[in-house]
Design brief:
It is built from 16 helices and three strands. Bound molecules: coenzyme A (COA).
Length: 372
Amino acid sequence: MDIEFDVKHGLEGVAVAISSISYVDGEKGELVYRGFKIEDLIENSTFEETSYLIWFGSLPNENELDFITTMLAKKRELPEEIVKMMNSFPKTSHPMEVLRSVVSLLGMFEKKDKSTFENAINLTAKIPTIIAYWYRIKNNLPLIHPRESLKHSENFLYMMFGSVPEHSSLFDKALILHAEQGMNASTFASTVTASTLSDIYSIITTAIGTLKGPLHGGANEKVLDMLEEIGNLENVEFYINDLINRKEKIMGFGHRIYKTYDPRAKILKNWIKDIFINKKIKYFEIALKVEEIVLNKFKEKKIYPNVDFYSGILYNYFGIPKDFFTPIFAMARIVGWTAHAMEYCKNNRIFRPKAIYNGPKNLKYKDVKGAE
Ligand SMILES: CC(C)(COP(=O)(O)OP(=O)(O)OC[C@H]1O[C@@H](n2cnc3c(N)ncnc32)[C@H](O)[C@@H]1OP(=O)(O)O)[C@@H](O)C(=O)NCCC(=O)NCCS
């Protein structure tokens, strides 16, 4: 009997939820959170304000902003037992492995009676601390404890380096850019976990594990690997052509939805170009040349830079090591993950797709000696 195959490979084009959280127009290169264009939010809002918008669906008034800012600031510290355990982790652990594991561990230490929203705030507040503490532990540096008086983004940079650097508002804006992006792989994976009515720590552990892959959030680290390997402008052409000839993916390019310039990549590129006009920003010239060659080669395939192409250059400017780039993505995207989990569960149905079986059905069992 012929099996009729109707498989949507990679679920391309399949809608799995109705959502009012964000809208992506992949042809026009537009990204909207809760009705507001990303360019508008970048210009006028902060990470705290945008998080409130994504979670609650409207911009906060003064009291609401104060509420969210205070909640995020008060929940930053980690349980002592967790810090002790982090000190025993192998120093070679990748920060994404640490983040994934510590979020999972936190589930055993935190009170279980909080609402999903309280849990979302609590984890959003703690993720920067996990990342910064790991940076300090890995580098044998004393921990810098969170300061409630600082904004979410400023406090992260302070816990990493001991001070809030110039242009820290750009880092805040970069978090806004990464906070939400519809039903991408990690959001889908975490929504599946949420649909089983599992707990928030399992939901976010799933999301982090999914984001880690180089085809998803892990691409930002791989982009810097590539730019480092290229090393100088003269090598770009040979290096990229070689990748293309070997049919390898060029990290930081291509997107399932954007078939034009990713608006987030455009914003990041313009910041680097405009704000740092008088300074030589490491790898920027090489990146521009890579972009020129890739755009030229892949005109027909509509492959453009995505958000991960330029973000690493900005983080590198702040002195953040490349293996910490994807955790920073997670630090922002937790807002989208939790918003989708809460939205989906209001009208929950467990995810249970199917696979079309194409294996044999009538094999006769034989034991290890071959007897029937
Ligand atoms: C993001 C990504 C996974 C989207 O995948 P997708 O929607 O499944 O697209 P496909 O992998 O089917 O790509 C379609 C075509 O474009 C090519 N392509 C896509 N991205 C490419 C890239 N970065 N470099 C070279 N070719 C690429 C594919 O080889 C394929 O070519 P083909 O039709 O000749 O086989 C993919 O573009 C990619 O792997 N990019 C690099 C990793 C990255 O930057 N990820 C971060 C995403 S925000």
